[in-house]
């Protein structure tokens, strides 16, 4: 599946590959310590750049203030 | 007016596999309308071990022909926020459209759980939960039309509901397709 921005496709692929392995082999086995952080930082930066360019950041932050998304915002740390 | 819809289904695959398939769901042959999918935020709570994820999807054409002449609606951005609790074996995804909310808001909550274990000991209950090849899926939907014009309002909500039922079928076909590929790959790995 492609990314919202063609520029992020390669980073997305690398991150998804890393995440899917971590999720199956670590997270579901009870080891919830984060992995794939480096690649996620790069991929996330690429995506958020595209989100801002498409003027979606305001829509997203508004949605996060409203139900049903406001309930899920907690104080967890970044992966 | 708001319309509610709730349905329960069983997926004949283990909970860990089903949740993996949710992450790997796109692309699949039943989801040609999904144009893009991205994880925009993700974190794991270090105390509870619960993972929270926000995904952004772009989906193609959401309006029927009669609606297209009334509203200038093309593709729609959809946001999904989810939590996975690996200790409780519970995954909850909440999805809502970000675009065209002035016309209609469709909110969908899907809860993936295992069957309640019958055994007394917690350890063997957990083991049984992971092995049981059945996942319970509960889907709750809320459709809200936001246009002020009553005849159009009810027509939109009716459309939303019909479309939702069609989508639910296609969506589970897609998930099952991904699950088959996933379990096939797992079998070849262990073989």
From TrEMBL, chain A:
InterPro entries: MDM35_apoptosis
Lineage: Eukaryota, Fungi, Fungi incertae sedis, Chytridiomycota, Chytridiomycota incertae sedis
UniProt superkingdom: Eukaryota
Protein name per UniProt: Mitochondrial distribution and morphology protein 35
GO molecular function: phosphatidic acid transfer activity
Family listed: Belongs to the TRIAP1/MDM35 family.
GO biological process terms on file: phospholipid translocation
Keywords recorded for this protein, A-Z: Disulfide bond
Species, as recorded: Powellomyces hirtus
Keyword Disulfide bond applies: yes
Nuclease is among the record's keywords: no
GO cellular component, one term: mitochondrial intermembrane space
Automatic annotation (TrEMBL), chain B:
Pfam families for the chain: PRELI (PF04707)
PROSITE patterns per UniProt: PRELI_MSF1
Domain annotation PRELI/MSF1: ranges: 1-187
GO CC terms of this entry: mitochondrial intermembrane space
PANTHER family: MSF1/PX19 RELATED
Protein name: PRELI/MSF1 domain-containing protein
Organism, scientific name: Powellomyces hirtus
